[in-house]
């Protein structure tokens, strides 16, 4: 296989290099000059208190089921103090391999729930935190939200049980850092079975179980975001290393790539303001904004500002998202504060959180061996 790819790399070298070499010529530089504000971020002394959160998941496939691991970890960096770990959470469990097509969605949702709960827990314990840095995008989670469809007779009673339990958990001073729907799953499924029988609903519990858990996991995720927005939104800064949006420059490549190729100096793009992050879906043949199934007012009414930045000359492009109506004049202050804890244009505690939380395959292999799991994976015949 590799021999043919090596041959193709020789044949395609000139064509592919030409594509990358010509990117800058295709960009409307006048538009870039209008949108990108060059600015020197020179703050080198940290005088604000920061925290950062990241999460990770990994999985190993055996013939009957996946074993999966999920972690989340916050790192705190306060002025005149060394960075320290806080609000660590983790989960290990199994999911049947019949859910092969859904497992990454399930684990991604679970990971985000733990990230959000670790964030909330840290901010409750440390009210002096000025900025909480989150890897990724809250608005992306909201815009991509999809609710699984269930008959109202089934989902409404289950929704009440689940959301009541989750709300009580979130209101506790000492937050339990676990996935609530996994904790109460047996109770939920027992109730669900009873509802199906009493209402003669045409559902087989085994067939809908994972779709139901995914749906309720989505509710838990939305409730965690809503709680964060109600109580701590003015501390939140979302930082993305990758972005494929192209709403600013309208080029054939993403906005982040335009800045990467066209801007060597530190600076930022003019902020884009969004009044809401409600999902847009087709209702019939018409594209419309739809409501969230829970916490709709908080989630729908939260405004956002987004922009791209380079904190240092020639450093990587970051997309920044702030979930409140920050005054544009204050944005340079925020970016200077970020620069004060950055190395090569990236906040060091976000990198530290990522390094601390990452679950490598060798770690999962060791966990499986410690649990005595040596079952066939289905790939044994290929590996011998």
Describe the protein.
The chain has 384 residues and is an alpha+beta fold. The protein is 46% helix and 21% strand. Strand 2 and strand 3 (65-77) form a beta hairpin. The radius of gyration is 23 Å and the shape is globular. The two termini are 19 Å apart.
Which helices and strands occur, and which strands form pairs?
Layout: H1 2-21, H2 23-26, H3 29-35, E1 36-38, E2 50-61, E3 65-77, E4 84-96, H4 103-125, E5 131-135, H5 138-143, H6 152-171, H7 180-183, H8 185-198, H9 205-232, E6 236-240, H10 255-262, E7 267-269, E8 272-274, E9 280-283, E10 286-289, H11 296-301, E11 304-310, E12 318-322, H12 328-339, E13 342-343, E14 346-347, H13 348-357, H14 361-370, H15 380-383
Parallel strand pairs: 2-5, 5-6
Antiparallel strand pairs: 1-7, 2-3, 3-4, 6-12, 7-11, 8-11, 9-10, 11-12, 13-14
Question: By helix and strand content, what is the structural category?
Answer: alpha+beta
- How large a portion of the residues is in β-strands, by DSSP E? 15-25%
Biggest β-sheet description = 10 strands, mixed
User: What's the overall geometry?
Assistant: globular
Low-confidence stretches: none
Give the number of helices. Answer: 15
Pattern of helices and strands: HHHEEEEHEHHHHHEHEEEEHEEHEEHHH
Q: Mean pLDDT, rounded to whole units?
A: 91
Taking all Cα atoms into account, the compactness measure Rg is: 23 Å
